[in-house]
């Protein structure tokens, strides 16, 4: 099959996204536009950008490859755990965060637990996103290698340059507008391709009859304690860890109001699980047609190359590139926002808006280069992506949840929770490498939070949740609702 038409279409698509980035750059007047798109997104754009952010190569390439090797049990973290995270965010977190009007996760910690906590939270956030960006760059290299035969390292570098350009120029507006295009292309591409591929492979009924039942187990059978711990970790590393993720919070805060914020999370969770399972099923089915692939994460490319006509291949490649770019731009913008909006303000409290915007933009290529260095030293998309959220689960999940749901949680308790979680995580990685260090660090952080808070209540009174003007917020109506016709239309 000639690849020239496909490569031409791919180049045209990339050029279009760059034009969108330039257009979006004209709408960026200050750091609020760059970081949260001026808080003007309606339900359609908010859902589109949130869904597209999570449809990365980790799902399309990585999850398909993991399912190829281990069935459903190998992909519990993503898409199952990721969908869980979206539902939990809408139900328990985003209403209050949107009401507070913060722009970053570190700003939440600063306002609720003080400046030092904000800086520590920022420091914990940045490595997670560098790891995620690196996993996406690895995926881009694999796509380019499979499509053109170019060295995967060159493909990785090429993808990094493209994403850096339009994220740096346009910020959250560029991310939102391109994500809206990309989620449509990805969803249509996978929906179009899946029945076509399954039909050419003999139909799902025939495929299922040849597959062992253990490929579809949703929980381990006859497992020891270590296996069960790792199974729980698979559900929670993204399911709870990414609740403190800047990408998720950023989209909630870009929403027009808190009703849009919570319902876009619910809808995105449904979309993510539905469409995210398509490459999982294809990866499992491919074990029959390609039983000995050297690189399981090339299984989707192999299926498309074997079974799709040129038009179908073009749609599929567009879907893959959409998945990658929609996640990579968001993953780069998240730590850049934390640097420009939190760390710089901590060092220079009197910084003006234009300088802050310039530093946000300058941090994007710096972070991209660091992520590229990490990507060039790894060759597995799925593991690198999932492990990126470990530090957030170990350090930020407990104090974030307490900050919203336990009014007595104070600065000392939150700081020691983050520090204890980080130390426990790093020690457990060394002394118990077979155990889920990030998950086991959570109860340690929780104990530290409760004990230190109780011990310092009189000397360190808790700060209330407050809005941008410093006015304390009532703790009522923190819980999300599942009725799209209820909610605060004026908030």
What CATH architecture label applies?
A: Up-down Bundle
Structural class: mainly alpha
Overall geometric form: globular
Q: With helices defined by DSSP (H or I, 4 residues minimum), what is the helix count?
A: 21
CATH topology: Sodium/glucose cotransporter
Q: pLDDT below 50 for ≥5 consecutive residues: which ranges?
A: 34-38, 487-491
Counting structural domains, the number is 1
**Ends apart, CA distance between termini:** 54 Å
Helix content: over 70%
Strand content: under 5%
Radius of gyration: 22 Å
How is the biggest beta sheet arranged? Answer: none
What sequence of helices (H) and strands (E) makes up the elements?
HHHHHHHHHHHHHHHHHHHHH
CATH class: Mainly Alpha
Estimate the mean pLDDT confidence. 84
Short summary of the structure?
The protein has 491 residues and is an all-alpha fold. 75% of the residues lie in helices and 0% in strands.
Quick tags:
Sodium/glucose cotransporter; 21 helices; 0% strand; single chain; 491 residues; mainly alpha
What does the secondary structure layout of this molecule look like, with pairings?
Layout: H1 4-25, H2 31-36, H3 43-54, H4 57-70, H5 76-92, H6 94-100, H7 105-113, H8 115-148, H9 152-200, H10 204-210, H11 225-239, H12 246-254, H13 258-289, H14 299-307, H15 310-347, H16 353-375, H17 381-387, H18 390-395, H19 397-405, H20 411-431, H21 437-456
Helix pairs in contact: 1-9, 1-15, 3-9, 3-12, 3-13, 3-15, 4-8, 4-13, 4-15, 4-17, 5-11, 5-13, 6-13, 7-8, 8-9, 8-15, 8-16, 8-17, 8-20, 9-13, 9-15, 9-16, 12-13, 15-16, 19-20, 20-21
């Amino acid at each position: 099959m000639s690849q020239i038409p496909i490569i031409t279409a791919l180049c045209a698509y990339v050029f279009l996204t760059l034009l969108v980035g330039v257009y979006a750059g004209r709408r960026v007047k200050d750091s609020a536009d760059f970081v949260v798109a001026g808080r003007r997104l309606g339900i359609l754009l908010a859902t589109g950008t949130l869904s597209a952010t999570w449809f990365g190569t980790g799902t399309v390439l990585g999850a398909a490859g993991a399912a190829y090797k281990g069935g459903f049990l190998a992909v519990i973290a993503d898409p199952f755990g990721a969908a869980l995270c979206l539902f939990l965010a809408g139900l328990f977190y985003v209403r209050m965060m949107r009401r507070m009007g913060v722009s970053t996760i570190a700003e939440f910690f600063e306002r609720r637990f003080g400046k030092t906590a904000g800086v520590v939270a920022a420091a914990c956030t940045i490595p997670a996103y560098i790891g995620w960006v690196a996993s996406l760059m690895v995926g881009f290299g694999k796509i380019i290698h499979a499509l053109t035969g170019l060295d995967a390292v060159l493909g990785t570098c090429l993808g990094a340059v493209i994403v850096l350009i339009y994220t740096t120029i346009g910020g959250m507006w560029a991310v939102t507008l391109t994500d809206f295009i990309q989620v449509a292309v990805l969803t249509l591409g996978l929906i179009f391709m899946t029945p076509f591929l399954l039909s050419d492979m003999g139909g799902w009924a025939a495929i299922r009859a040849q597959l062992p039942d253990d490929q579809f187990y949703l929980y381990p059978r006859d497992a020891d304690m270590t296996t069960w711990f790792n199974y729980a970790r698979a559900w929670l590393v993204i399911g709870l860890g990414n609740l403190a993720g800047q990408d998720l919070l950023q989209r909630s805060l870009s929403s027009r109001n808190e009703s849009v914020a919570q319902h876009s999370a619910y809808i995105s969770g449904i979309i993510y699980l539905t469409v995210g399972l398509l490459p999982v099923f294809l990866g499992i089915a491919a074990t029959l047609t390609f039983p000995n692939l050297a690189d399981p994460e090339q299984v989707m490319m192999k299926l498309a190359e074997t079974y799709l006509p040129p038009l179908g291949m073009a749609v599929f490649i567009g879907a893959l590139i959409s998945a990658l770019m929609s996640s990579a731009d968001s993953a780069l913008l998240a730590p850049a926002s934390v640097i420009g909006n939190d760390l710089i303000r901590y060092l220079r409290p009197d910084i003006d808006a234009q300088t802050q915007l310039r530093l946000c933009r300058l941090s994007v290529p710096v972070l991209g280069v660091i992520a590229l260095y990490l990507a060039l030293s790894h060759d597995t998309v799925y593991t690198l992506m999932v492990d990126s959220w470990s530090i957030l689960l170990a350090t930020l999940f407990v104090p974030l949840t307490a900050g919203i749901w336990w009014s007595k949680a104070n600065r000392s308790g939150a700081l020691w929770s983050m520090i204890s979680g980080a130390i426990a995580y790093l020690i457990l990685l060394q002394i118990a490498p077979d155990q889920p260090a990030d998950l086991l660090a959570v109860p340690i952080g929780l104990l530290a939070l409760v004990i230190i808070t109780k011990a310092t209540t009189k000397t360190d009174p808790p700060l209330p949740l407050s809005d941008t003007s410093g006015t304390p917020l009532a703790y009522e109506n923190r819980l999300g609702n599942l009725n799209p016709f209820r909610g605060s239309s004026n908030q």
